[in-house]
């Protein structure tokens, strides 16, 4: 397995964020830094977790912060491409109680 990476693609008014590898306490700061660099004028942020093989609650914290910021400034944040294992961690950490949308 290769190192953790975050790819970001900018499109008209939207951003696609694709982390890959292990998303955990050690790699979460890299994702946090990448998400912090997304300009506010992008009203749609799509986080594709299909390349994430393992995630823990600390690794998902940057996504939770993004979801919270999105609901504060009318930004639409969607999490897609989740495996059953990642979906379980999302449920256990309370992502299902957030107003932002998720898609599997």
Question: From the alpha-carbon coordinates, what is the Rg to the nearest angstrom?
Answer: 12 Å
The whole-number mean of residue pLDDT values reads 84
Give the CA-based shape.
globular
- Structural class of the secondary structure composition? alpha/beta
**Strand tally:** 5
Strand content: 25-35%
Secondary-structure element pattern, one letter each:
EEHEEHEH
Our count of helices gives: 3
Largest sheet: 5 strands, mixed
Residues in helix, %: 25-40%
Q: What low-confidence regions span 5 or more consecutive residues with pLDDT below 50?
A: 98-102
Spatial separation of the terminal alpha carbons: 23 Å
Structure description:
This protein has 104 residues and is an alpha/beta fold. It is 33% helix and 31% strand. The chain has 3 helices and 5 strands. Strands 1, 2, 3, 4 and 5 form a 5-stranded mixed beta sheet that branches. A hairpin with a 2-residue loop joins strand 1 and strand 2. Helix 1 (28-36) runs parallel beside helix 2 (57-72). The longest helix has 16 residues, at 57-72. The radius of gyration is 12 Å and the shape is globular. The protein starts with a strand and ends in a 12-residue tail after the last helix. The relative contact order is 0.18.
Quick summary:
This protein is an alpha/beta fold and 104 residues long.
Q: Which secondary structure elements does this structure contain, and how are they paired or packed?
A:
Blueprint (H helix, E strand, L loop, with lengths): L4 E7 L2 E10 L4 H9 L7 E5 L2 E5 L1 H16 L3 E5 L3 H9 L12
Parallel strand pairs: 2-3, 2-4, 3-5
Antiparallel strand pairs: 1-2
Helix pairs in contact: 1-2
């Amino acid at each position: 397995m290769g190192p953790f990476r975050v790819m970001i693609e900018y499109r008209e008014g939207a951003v696609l964020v694709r982390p890959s590898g292990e998303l955990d306490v050690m790699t979460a700061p890299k994702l946090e830094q990448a998400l912090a660099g997304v300009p506010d004028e992008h009203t749609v942020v799509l986080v594709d977790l299909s390349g994430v093989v393992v995630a823990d609650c600390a690794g998902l914290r940057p996504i939770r912060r993004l979801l919270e910021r999105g609901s504060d400034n009318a930004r639409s944040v969607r999490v897609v491409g989740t495996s059953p294992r990642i979906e379980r961690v999302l449920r256990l950490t309370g992502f299902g109680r957030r107003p932002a949308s998720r898609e599997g």
